[in-house]
Automatic annotation (TrEMBL), chain A:
Keywords: Cell membrane, Coiled coil, Membrane, Transmembrane, Transmembrane helix, Transport
Residue stretches spanning the membrane: 12-35, 301-327, 347-371, 391-413, 434-456, 514-537
GO BP of this protein: phosphate ion transmembrane transport
A single GO molecular function term of this UniProt record: phosphate transmembrane transporter activity
Family: Belongs to the binding-protein-dependent transport system permease family. CysTW subfamily.
InterPro entries tied to this protein: MetI-like, MetI-like_sf, Phosphate_PstA
Membrane topology value: Multi-pass membrane protein
Native species: Pseudothauera lacus
Cellular localisation: Cell inner membrane; Cell membrane
Residue stretches in coiled coil: 190-240
Gene3D superfamilies per record: MetI-like (1.10.3720.10)
Record-given protein name: Phosphate transport system permease protein PstA
UniProtKB/TrEMBL annotation, chain B:
Species for this entry: Pseudothauera lacus
InterPro entries: MetI-like, MetI-like_sf, WD40/YVTN_repeat-like_dom_sf, WD40_repeat_dom_sf
Main location: membrane
UniProt keyword Transcription regulation present: no
Domain ABC transmembrane type-1: 468-755
Protein name from the UniProt record: Phosphate ABC transporter permease
Subcellular location: Cell membrane
Membrane spanning residue stretches: 35-60, 474-497, 538-556, 577-600, 620-644, 665-685, 734-755
Pfam families assigned to the protein according to its UniProt record, in alphabetical order: BPD_transp_1 (PF00528)
Listed GO CC annotations: plasma membrane
PROSITE patterns: ABC_TM1
Assigned protein family: Belongs to the binding-protein-dependent transport system permease family.
Lipid bilayer topology: Multi-pass membrane protein
Length: 550, 769
């Protein structure tokens, strides 16, 4: 023992333990996100049981088991629960009870002591609703305009069929509201701006005014027609309803127009569950958020993140590469350049929030304000570019990631064997030609690596974006069918901010938790993918140069 | 082979371009070369400039905080007087600094152009026949309420409003008088029925919560007051005024000044000797004298006292030129509030004659006998400027609501001086930002960050101390977790680990660095914080069980049969430990509730509360764990490089001399690589200081000043993220937030530069070894 101690082996084991702990933390974290994130879409079985409430009353419970935990009985006694004296540990379960509008609380902890037998009746049906969260119950009757059209076992097949119909109508309604009416509003605003611009320039005369009124009238007529169609569709959508029995025996009528999806998890085969799972995942990726972002999909957030990162790449690549080439190839090497280089590298370590502050102050208020008064005077005092938006978010991130691109490109340039450079110069090429035709093409993979690393950093960055253009709910996407198609001044949604907002600022944080895990999963996958590709490009590149310089 | 044409066997002219063409080509090539040189040069310099701009811009935005106050005597003009030329009772200026007003003893109110003195209009207060004005009192300046004492013993309250109209798009301001308590003069203090003429020596009017108070004091020391409670009828929408009159115990000395605060709970009467009598008037039927306070040193007279905006504290000017601030302070947790001296300002050289508080912040302007005007600010307790304006004693002062224009009238002079004041950020003195400040409504000086509130008269508390302490606290707890793990891990990975495993481990830990911190923050706040709260002993158990368990496994392994030990190559210890650590973790989780039962009466959370330790769910512990996790890869990566690059011949030499591998690590490797490890820790610390999202989500964001591991904090970075989107552009708060960004930038930049320099030196040393 003493000898073992003296050999220093314990210290080596402890150091090794540090590595193991770090590795377990990394992969444990990834596993946690994977399990919770992917678990979000699985149609979990619904439990039916009874629970004896603290006041002695026994109630029926229908719900989904979310988690179980073991606590000391004392901590629950401190919270006012009566437990037998001799009991030391207690298991409690968190159930999702849904039916937020019926009971007022959709999640509840229940102590195992007071729970009855767990059964899984096949006819328990779950609805995903457009408002008020999920709904659990047992279907009793199906109604069409108040008349019973199916009951008992016949309800479920008829329900699915009619649900498809109401969802088809809903999609149409959504299309009219979002796309067509959105277009009209956009064009009406344009008319207003045109008129105001003419007024500011002093060109507004009666003829012009009549022309604007005419344009406005045409749009309003169009709008009224759409509105009429919309009203008819909405009335049609409200035709069917289903009467459900909820836990406790109460009957609740649910309109089919409020239901997004219906499923009977206890009645599904594994294959059906997988199918449901894939569909749910698709809806999540490509759907729009509902209920203050706590339900529905995250498409606008994914779209916003991608567009912002693309715009950022377009800005950061040329400038980063130019700066790197300048530092490496043209600038006079010396102590000053060394200081500049260290400073540029160090900017990568400056807190990102500082960039956000700079972006808000300089880009948004100074540059944006100047752009507004020069090019968009007709919209003032409402700011166009003088307010946080897509372009400023991208520009701020470009500044933030410049050091990454510069460092990576410089590294690539310095790796290129000087023999290649000398060869080109010896053949009579000018410095510029050597640079652009020989050196830079060889260094492209390094630039790509830098760019990918920059994108990975930008995609995960949230703090500066909160200041310069990311919002919890953007009414429109930054790209649409209205001229000029890419709207750089619009505010956007972002995956990272979505996580922060839904996880911490939403009214139903508990209900949204699973969705946040799923969002986090998407973000992690995106970033891990980007980083892995950067690493593989870098390795590939090293191999390649090793081969070429031999 | 088309290079040489063969038709007819005659060589045609050379394929090379002609001389001119070559000349031209050369020129274009040279041009392109120059273009590339200057294009890249300007692009590169532009980018470097853009990065430098971050420094410059943040500096530019915070610079106004340091700018000294400027006060200049802009112009002066003849005192705008009405036909009677009676003395001035009061001066005002509107919030657009266009219209000045002069209240004269004759009952005339003259409005004039503030820039030229040209008289715009003159109105007369409606006085009954044969009655003259004998007294005057006013409310807080921002409320614009006044009360005249009349020779028949009645008083007349009135209010000045400014109406804004925009005929033809141009702003026109019209002053208007209104009478909130009726156009008829009233009598206060149950004097309703007698017609006795009273000569009031002190008058005041207050609009407070739920009503108005008019108070009047006489030379005999009697104080009478009337309370008008207003209530709006729900049905008709009409305002109903209920009136209550009562008298206060007599002072026995002439009343010089009366002050009632906005809460309508306290009345301060100052007598001829400069003694303040503090009455509690909450119980309307029975006003109580709480205390009498001598506001000045013996032999010094109180000349004037005024409330600062919000009427929570009182500025007292003495005949020796002293200025002091007094405030009601709760005594040792009791319910009685007593007036306490909380700070003194720089003394004027002559007796104070007039004090005028600013309308929207805690500053005031004071005039003295020598004609000097002083600008003071309460929160930062600074005297910003003295300026001699007139040769006579200052008689009256007025300051505009945006604090950039003041009117000064000298006693006996027939002219009015206009001061232009540029004083946007009086609060941000060094002591205001970093020292303990006694804020209004507090029981003592403290470091507080509380930047805004719904109330207009709110005193913003901009101490950077709680935020800096919070930042350091969060970073320290993060370093506490990450430094040992990362350095130990780096030593093992670089020196002991087998090459194939290292190839896997290094990228995985570096991948951790790319994980968005918003995800770490989310997990810390939503998953870890509640879990730790319910299973607190896990940490204590973990601290013991992990090192001991690992050592135990190591010892057991050394006792295993050699055949088994030899089947695993050296440098795979960490891989072997992975299942061990998982099992240890599982043991810790299982043991946790039993530890609670055994040592903490069944619930450690409750136990902490019972021994007097505050526990917030989101606290420094959670932040330390989550941010430590985020910092590990930064430290690990750099430290690993430093250790790995220690020249091999050094270590081999040491081993050849008979040192054990561990002795080599301690004696040679660590010694050589220590600067690199040090710079790794510095860079990690820089990252922890600036991290925003984790702290924002896992710390609770309460700006408290302590180092308790179980309480939260608010860091500079998180504070910026929370408050910057909501603040007014250009305000003091806005600039202080920019200042905190600049502090963060400078701090991390210096830290990183130092670390980088250390690393470069180390690299040079390795090369020379």
């Amino acid at each position: 023992m003493k000898q073992w101690w003296k050999s220093g082996a314990p210290w080596i084991w402890l150091n090794g333990g540090a590595v193991s702990i770090s590795i377990i933390m990394v992969f444990g974290l990834l596993a946690l996100i994977l399990v919770r994130g992917f678990g979000h879409f699985w149609p979990h079985s619904l439990v039916s049981t009874t629970y004896v409430q603290p006041n002695g009353e026994q109630v029926e419970v229908i719900g989904q088991l979310r988690k179980s935990e073991t606590l000391t009985a004392q901590s629950l006694r401190d919270a006012g629960l009566k437990l037998p004296e001799e009991q030391r540990l207690v298991t409690r379960h968190l159930f999702k009870l849904a039916n937020r509008d019926v009971t007022g609380r959709d999640f509840s902890y229940m102590v195992e002591n007071f729970l009855g037998e767990w059964t899984y009746p096949k006819d328990i049906t779950a609805f995903e609703r457009r408002e008020w969260g999920d709904f659990y119950g047992q279907p009793l009757r199906l109604l069409e305009r108040g008349e019973v059209v199916a009951s008992g076992d016949g309800v479920w097949p008829a329900l699915q069929e009619r649900l498809q119909r109401s969802n088809r109508i809903f999609d149409e309604v959504r299309k009219i509201e979002r796309v067509e009416i959105g277009n009209i509003n956009f064009r009406l605003e344009r008319v207003r701006l045109d008129q105001r611009r003419a007024e500011l320039r002093g060109e507004l005369n009666d003829a012009l005014r009549a022309q604007f009124d005419e344009r406005r009238r045409a749009l309003n007529t169009e709008y009224e027609e759409l509105q009429e169609r919309l009203n008819a569709l909405i009335a049609d959508m409200r035709r069917d309803a289903v009467v459900m029995r909820v836990a406790g025996g109460k009957e609740v009528t649910v309109g089919l127009n409020t239901i997004v999806k219906a499923w009977q998890p206890n009645n599904m085969s594994v294959i059906a569950k997988v199918g449901f799972y894939i569909e749910a995942f698709y809806d999540f990726m490509f759907g729009f958020p509902r209920e203050a972002n706590t339900e529905g999909g995250i498409f606008p957030a994914i779209f916003g993140t991608v567009v912002m990162v693309l715009v950022m790449s377009i800005i950061v690549t040329p400038f980063g590469v130019l700066a790197a080439i300048y530092l490496r190839e043209y600038a006079k090497q010396g102590p000053l350049l060394k200081a500049i280089r260290i400073s540029v590298y160090n900017l990568a370590g400056v807190p990102s929030i500082v960039f956000g502050v700079f972006g808000l102050g300089f880009f948004v208020y100074v540059l944006g304000g100047a752009i507004d008064s020069a090019f968009y005077p007709e919209a003032l005092p409402a700011p166009t570019f003088g307010t946080p938006g897509l372009f400023w978010a991208s520009l701020t991130l470009a500044l933030l990631t410049l050091p990454v691109v510069i460092v990576s490109t410089e590294e690539g340039l310095s790796r290129i064997p000087s023999t290649i450079r000398m060869g080109s110069l010896a053949l009579g090429a000018t410095k510029g030609e050597t640079l652009w035709k020989v050196v830079v093409p060889l260094a492209t993979p390094a630039m790509m690596t830098g760019l990918i690393l920059a994108i990975a950093r930008a995609a995960g960055e949230v703090a500066p974006l909160m200041l310069v253009g990311v919002v919890k709910l953007a009414p429109t996407l930054p790209i649409d069918g209205n001229f000029p198609f890419i709207h750089l001044e619009r505010k956007i949604m972002h995956l990272g901010f979505h996580i922060y907002d839904v996880g911490f600022q939403s009214p139903h944080a508990e209900a949204a938790e699973a969705l946040v895990y799923a969002t986090a999963l998407i973000l992690v996958l995106l970033i891990v993918l980007l980083n892995l590709s950067a690493i593989s490009i870098r390795n590939h590149l090293r191999e390649k140069f090793r081969a070429e310089s031999d | 082979m088309s290079a040489i044409p063969t038709d007819g066997g005659v060589l045609r002219e050379s394929l090379l371009p002609s001389a001119e063409k070559r000349e031209k080509l050369r020129k274009t090539r040279m041009f392109r070369d120059a273009l590339s040189r200057y294009g890249v040069g300007s692009g590169g310099i532009g980018v470097i400039f853009a990065l430098a701009l971050i420094f410059l811009y943040l500096f530019y935005e915070t610079l106004p905080l340091l700018k000294p106050v400027s006060v200049e005597q802009a112009y002066s003009y003849a005192l705008p007087v009405d036909e009677t030329a009676s003395p001035t009772l009061h001066l005002t200026v509107d919030r657009f600094e266009e219209i000045g007003g002069r209240f004269a003893e004759s009952g005339a109110i003259t409005f004039f152009q503030a820039s030229t003195g040209r008289i715009l209009s003159s109105v007369r207060v409606p006085l009954p026949e044969g009655v003259t004005i004998t007294g005057f009192g006013r409310s807080e300046t921002r409320k614009s309420l006044f009360v005249y004492g009349l020779s028949d013993g009645s008083v007349l309250p009135l209010k000045v409003d400014y109406d804004l109209t925009y005929p033809a798009g141009v702003r026109v301001i019209t002053p208007r008088l209104s009478y909130p308590l009726g156009e008829q003069p009233i009598r206060v203090g149950e004097r309703e029925n007698d017609d006795e003429a009273v000569d009031y020596s002190a008058l005041t009017i207050v609009e407070g919560r739920g009503g108005y108070v008019v108070a009047a004091g006489t030379r005999e020391g009697e104080i009478a007051m009337a309370l008008f409670s207003t209530s709006t009828s729900m049905l008709s929408g009409t305002v109903e005024i209920r009136r209550q009159d009562f008298r206060l115990p007599a002072l026995g000395k002439p009343v010089r000044q009366l002050l009632v605060n906005e809460s309508l709970r306290n009345l301060f009467a100052i007598d001829e000797d400069g003694v303040l009598h503090h009455f509690d008037i909450v119980n309307r039927g029975n006003p109580v004298l709480v205390e009498t306070v001598a506001l000045t040193r013996p032999g010094v007279d109180v000349r004037v006292a005024e409330f600062l905006v919000g009427s929570r504290s009182l500025i007292v000017g003495g005949s020796d030129g002293s200025l002091t601030q007094w405030m009601l302070v709760r005594e040792d947790g009791g319910n009685v509030q007593r007036l306490a001296l909380i700070r003194e300002f720089r003394r004027h050289d002559a007796a104070i004659t007039f004090i005028e508080p600013e309308h929207s912040r805690k500053g005031f302007i004071a005039g003295d006998e020598s004609g000097t005007v002083g600008l003071h600010y309460a929160t930062s307790s600074v005297t910003l400027k003295f300026l001699k304006v007139v040769d006579a004693p200052v008689e009256r002062l007025a300051i505009s609501a945006i604090n950039s224009m003041a009117l000064v009238e000298g006693r006996g002079t027939a002219s009015l001086q206009v001061l232009r004041i540029d004083n946007p950020h009086p609060q941000t003195s060094l002591s205001g930002l970093w020292g303990k400040v006694w804020y209004e409504g507090r029981d003592g000086p403290a470091y507080i960050w509380q930047s805004s509130s719904a109330d207009d008269a709110f005193e913003s508390k901009l101490s950077l101390v709680p935020l800096s302490i919070g930042t350091l606290k969060a970073a320290l707890f993060a370093m506490l977790l990450s430094t040992p793990l990362a350095i130990a891990g780096a030593i093992y990975t670089a020196y002991f680990m087998s090459a194939p495993m290292r190839k896997l481990v290094k990228p995985s830990i570096e991948l951790m660095e790319a994980l968005p911190t918003v995800i770490l923050g989310f997990l810390a706040g939503i998953w870890l914080a509640p879990y730790i709260e319910n299973n607190l002993p896990i940490l204590l158990i973990g601290l013991v069980i992990f090192p001991l368990g690992i050592l135990a496994w190591g010892f057991a392994w050394s006792r295993m049969p050699a055949s088994l030990r030899n089947s695993v190559a050296g440098g795979w210890e960490a891989a072997m430990l992975i299942p061990v650590v998982i099992v240890l973790g599982w043991i810790a989780v299982t043991l946790s509730p039993w530890a609670e039962l055994a040592f903490f009466d069944g619930s450690m959370r409750q136990w902490l509360t019972s021994v007097g330790i505050t526990y917030d769910q989101r606290n420094a512990l959670i932040v330390g764990l989550a941010m430590g996790f985020a910092v590990i890869p930064t430290i690990f990566s750099i430290a690993e490089d430093a250790v790995f690059n220690v020249p091999k011949h050094l270590t081999q030499g040491s081993l050849a001399l008979g040192a054990t591998p561990w002795q080599t690590v301690v004696g040679v490797v660590l010694l050589t690589a220590s600067p690199g490890i040090f710079s790794a820790v510095m860079i990690g610390f820089g990252r922890a200081v600036g991290e925003t999202m984790i702290v924002l989500m896992a710390s609770g964001n309460s700006p408290i000043v302590n180092f308790s591991i179980f309480e939260g904090m608010r860091t500079l970075a998180a504070n910026i993220a929370v408050e910057l989107p909501e603040t007014a552009v250009g305000s003091t708060h806005f600039r202080v937030l920019f200042l905190s960004a600049l502090v963060l930038l400078a701090f991390t930049f210096v830290l990183n530069t130092a670390a980088e320099v250390v690393r470069q030196r180390l690299r040079k040393r390795y090369a020379s070894l």
